[in-house]
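Reviewer 2 asked us to include a model.

Predict the structure of this chain.
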Amino acid sequence: MRGTVMAMSAAALLVAAAGAWVVSAQAEKTAAAGGDIQQQLADARARVAQVERTVGRLEDERDIETLQRTYGYFTDKAMWKEAADLFADDGTLEIGGRGVFVGKAHILKYLTWLAPKGLTDGKLLNHLQLQPLVTIAPDGKTAKARSRWLAEIGDYHKSSLWGIGTYENEYVKQGGVWKISALHAYYRMYTPYAEGWAKAAGPNTHPEKALPPDRPPTVVYQTYPATFIPPYDYPNPVTGK
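Predicted model (structure tokens):
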């Protein structure tokens, strides 16, 4: 993905440069014929600026996808400190129904609580992330993204679970670097591997007394077999609604 976007970026800039050169050449001919060279040059600069904005947006989308994928790889391996470092200092984390955890320190405490000893023998924490759709704010300073997640959770000879859900996350660009400002993982389903979703499905989680959140859950909902659709952060691309 990174190589593809960079290739697109380079190609776009080359096209813009070539276009500007052609317009400049045309402007010289226009001037020789008594035309408006300043307007020709202004048009060329506007085209180059538009291409640069498009390239910048593509690069932002790539960087946010890389950031979110990195979070998944770190959680796979119970690298909690590294995962918490992906958040802004005042970032928030909300997973399932356990409430909102605010700030890197509390986010790290929550993540560590999930597996205090890390990735020990027999522990499985696979965390796949799929179908990312990134929306960059017009000012290029913040963004939102929706994606799916698929989890394989297990303890050898003890338990095994399938988990699926949706991310609706927010990001902020600080010092030229994108960071997670709000991670919200909605649960869709957790089910024992042996029984499967046709026979068993666990309820949504809830705030834990052993690890109280900073804020209550932002939304209360039921997981499969109930139906709940996390709100979309972007409009329908065809209807605009």
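The first helix runs from residue 2 to 32. The chain has two domains: 2-56, 79-241. We have added this to the supplementary material.
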